[in-house]
Amino acid sequence: MTIRVLLADDQALLRSAFKVLVDSEPDMEVVGEASDGAEAARLAAERRADVVLMDIRMPGTDGLAATRLISADPALAHVRVVILTTFEVDDYVVQSLRAGASGFLGKGSEPDELLAAIRVAAGGEALLSPTATKGLIARFLAQEGTGEENRDPARAERLRSLTGREREVLVQVAGGHSNDEIAERLAVSPLTVKTHVNRAMAKLGARDRAQLVVIAYESGLVRPRVE
């Protein structure tokens, strides 16, 4: 299967560089380029993209709004958005994840990291390292407050539909652990972990693991800690 990639960035030079890199891979192809968010959302549907590399700061409709448009469209449920950030710590990161992005990547990342990110996103995984999950995301959520008034009651209520084991797995996912790591921690097989993750996503209405992480924090299941 060839991964169909859409590039969304208002800088033509960057798009050209990304295009050369992506098109050099036998399992990927660039199917479109957008200079603003509105165009990105439109092309994601027209070009049947699998992964969108989305810049946040673009004129007109920015990347955050475009990500919301894509994630809100049932016809684009298969599309994964990877946010490209200029800085590792970006005020928009958590907003991007809440909007439906599968993760984020610094524009200064190595070419191999970018290609790996595309493959990870296309496979339905989240681009959230343990450091990012425990540190950056927790810090932003902690800044917003962690009291009862800041939790999402609807999402907290949905947690009741999870089994005890699914809740355990969700906590581990929110900690940034991979399926293999969770399997080792809970003494089960990676396939069993994957099954629990998929069931939790279905019950909680999450598009992917990144959304599970946000839900775990917003529902109060996992409490942010600032180190």
Automatic annotation (TrEMBL):
Domain of life: Bacteria
Record SMART domains: HTH_LUXR, REC
Gene3D superfamilies hit by this protein: 3.40.50.2300
Organism of origin: Streptomyces olivaceus
Sequence positions bearing 4-aspartylphosphate: 55
Isomerase keyword on record: no
Entry keyword set: DNA-binding, Phosphoprotein, Transcription, Transcription regulation
Domain HTH luxR-type span(s) in chain numbering: 155-220
Keyword Transcription: yes
Annotated ranges, domain Response regulatory: 4-122
Pfam family, one: Response_reg
Database matches in SUPFAM superfamilies: C-terminal effector domain of the bipartite response regulators, CheY-like
Protein name: Response regulator transcription factor
